[in-house]
Amino acid sequence: MRDMTNPIQYDLLGIGNAIVDVLSMCEERTLTHLGLRKGGMALIDEARAEALYRQMGPATECSGGSAANTVAGLASLGGRAAFIGKVKNDQLGEIFRHDLRSLSVRFDTAAAATGPATARCLIFVTPDAQRTMNTFIGACAGVSEADIDEALIAAAAITYAEGYLWDTPSAKAAIDKALTAARRAKRATALTLSDTFCVERHRDTFIPLVRRTVDILFANEAEICALAQCNTLEDALGTVRGWCPIIAVTRSEKGCIVLSDQDRCEVAAEYVPNVIDTTGAGDLFASGFLYGISRGLTLPECARLGNRCAASIIQQMGARSQQGLATLAAA
User: Fold this and answer.
1) Residue 59 is assigned to a structural domain of this protein
2) What is the rounded radius of gyration, in angstroms, for the C-alpha atoms of the chain?
3) pTM confidence score
4) Domain of residue 168, CATH code
5) At what angle do helices 66-77 and 91-101 cross, to 10 degrees?
6) Is 26 inside a domain boundary?
7) pLDDT at 62
8) Are strands 60-64 and 156-162 parallel, antiparallel or unpaired?
């Protein structure tokens, strides 16, 4: 970990896609009819987004995006947070900005005046709570080095980036600039792999990024196996151990495994009586974990708080807590 003893203004700065989620319950036959792969995430263009939206049933709109969800969760726990991401100067962009600022999250990134619309993710949720995501990146792809405020980076204890943003050269440059600036300021860095398709597309650049500039890596079981190119979790953990100081691997109902240079801990999942929607479970795990890091908790304590946050969010629709998470931090 980096030296975090200098005065800070924010516990966490997230860099990621600024997306408005559109969630709708559906039957599995709807996925088949629309040609969607259950449980997956597909990148779509604006025309496909409009066509799928017309096929959705009653929907709920709420701001989303992986790193933004994590930042919002940390703020809900009582932490101080900021966010860098790109929206367009349109209605969805204003919704996104309002939702973050309503949580006292600093979000000053200039909106795009031209180009694609603000991003949206159309999420089809089946009765078993699995979510099938279809993402129109839109204005998100426009984030660039010019949006990275190095003074803001230096003011944050942890800078956290999402793998979903790694698809464009300008966004790669932005993340690289941010993580490099964090290291120069002796702040901590974190990355979430986001999705197995992200790993498969970008493994050759993810690995040196992790080994060179990441202090805390988040992944689920499938993602860490994809990164290590191993068939079993144990083989994958053996391969990646030591690539960065802390690796947190989520395993749904099996809880999580956290590796450090010195130790390994396994923490059981929280009991959830009724799973409604798994959207954001990994994002909120990161919220709890990083909040714990910012408060100096042990790694098992960070993992338990992460599990509590994940358990809370999957008992509602959407990835932004409707009840608040502060009580979880106090538990």
Assistant:
1) no
2) 18
3) 0.90
4) 3.40.1190.20
5) 30
6) no
7) 85
8) unpaired
